[in-house]
Amino acid sequence: MYPSRWRSSTLSVYILLLSLLLVAGCGSSGGNDKQASVTPTAPPLPSPTAISGPGQQTLDTMAQKLNNAKTLHGIFKLTSSSQAFNGNVETELWKTAPDKSRSEVKQSTFSQVSTGSVSVSDGQQIWQYDPAKKIVYTGKVSHDANTPDQQNQGIAGSGGGQNQSLLNIIQSIFDNSIGTLRSSSVTVDGHNTSDVHVVPRSNGDSGTASNFNYKGEIYIDNQTQLPVKVDLDISSLGKITVTIPKLDVNPAIDNKLYTFTPPAGTKTRPLEEASGNQNTGKLTLAQAQKQAGYHLLSIPGQEGEYTLQGVAALGTPGLQTYTLNYMKGNTAFTIAEGKPLADLPARGNQTSLRGTNGTSSSNNGQTTLSWTEKGVGYRITGAITADQALEIAKLLS
After folding, report:
1. 127 near 24, Cβ under 8 Å?
2. pLDDT tens profile 19-75
3. 218-231 pLDDT per residue, tens
4. 364 near 383, Cβ under 8 Å?
5. What pTM was computed for the model?
6. What are the boundaries of each domain within the chain?
7. Which numeric CATH code is attached to 275-395?
8. Domain 9-31+38-257, what architecture?
C-alpha cells in the first residue's frame, strides 16, 4: 500500500479506503448506508492543548478495553466523501486474538470491493473468496515468530502496524490523539454517547511524531465505553465516516466461523495469485526489489551473523509493504518497510537515526523502532533491545 505519502491526495484516499475495508476485494456491487444521526449540536469547540482531562481519559479507557479484548464481533459501515472516492461499504468482522479472523462484505458501492467478499483465517490457513470472479484464493499463513501480528495480544493489533484494518486505524487514533470532551450527552443512533474531539499529538506530546493530519469526532457509548461513530476530516484527503451499529467485546465465538468451504461452482487458486490479497507469499529479496519499484533497505551480505529467511509482501499489488524476516543466532526479528508505513502515528521514545528522527517503544518483550526516510516508512520489531534495533538500523543499506 502507498506510492507517495499520506498527503498525496487521490492515491492516499484509495490506500486509506483499502486499509479500512478489512478485506482485499475485487469487482463491484451496490448498496447504501445512512449515516448515523447525531443530536444535539455540540457546543463550541475548545482548543485541545492538554493531553489530560475527561476527553483524554475516555480515549485511553477505550484503547485499553480494545487492547485487552480476546474476542470481538462488530459491524462497520464506512462512508467516504471525496472527489476521488464517494461511496460506502458495510463489513461484518469476527476476531479472536491473536490470529483468527473472519470478515464479510455485506454491501459495497466501491468498485474495489464486491458485496459478498469473504476473508477468513484460522491462524494457519487463509481463504479469500472473490464472488465476482467465483474464485477462492487460499494458502498457508506465514508464521514469523516476532512479527507484531503474532505477538500482540490485543484484539486490534498495534496502531499503524502491518495489518492496516479498520480496527487498527481506529486504535491508532485512540492511542495517538489529543482528546477534548465536547459533550458528555450526544445521541447517536439511539446511543447516549460522549463526543470527543481528536487531533494528532504534536512532536512534543509524549514522544509522538506524526504527519498524518486529521481532526474529527469520536462518539463513545457512555455505558459500554466502545465507539459508536468515528467522523474524521483528513488533511488533503477528505471526510471519512465509520458508523459502528454493533460492537461486542469478548463474546463467545464458534471456531467454525474460522473455516471456509468454497461455494459450489467456484475455483480454488493459490493465495499468491489473488489480486489485492493481503499476503502475497514469501519472496526473495531480488523479487521483492523488482516488485517494489524502489530500493528496499536490507542488511548487507557481508554481515554474516545475520541470515535473511525470506521476504513477504503485504497489501494490494503495486502498493505493498515488504517484511524482511531475519535471524541472528536464535533471535528472530523483522524489518517492515514501504510507503504505506510513512509518517504513521507512533508513541514511544524519540531517537535520532539515519539523519532523521524515529520512535522506539517496547511491549510484552517486543521492541519496535519506527521511522520514515525518503518517503518510505520502516519498522524493526523483535525480542531485542532498543540499542540492538538502532544497531540494525545503522547497518541497512
Report:
1. no
2. 443 322 222 223 333 344 444 334 344 443 445 789 889 988 887 887 788 999 999
3. 999 999 999 999 99
4. no
5. 0.61
6. 9-31+38-257, 275-395
7. 3.30.200.100
8. Clam (2.50)
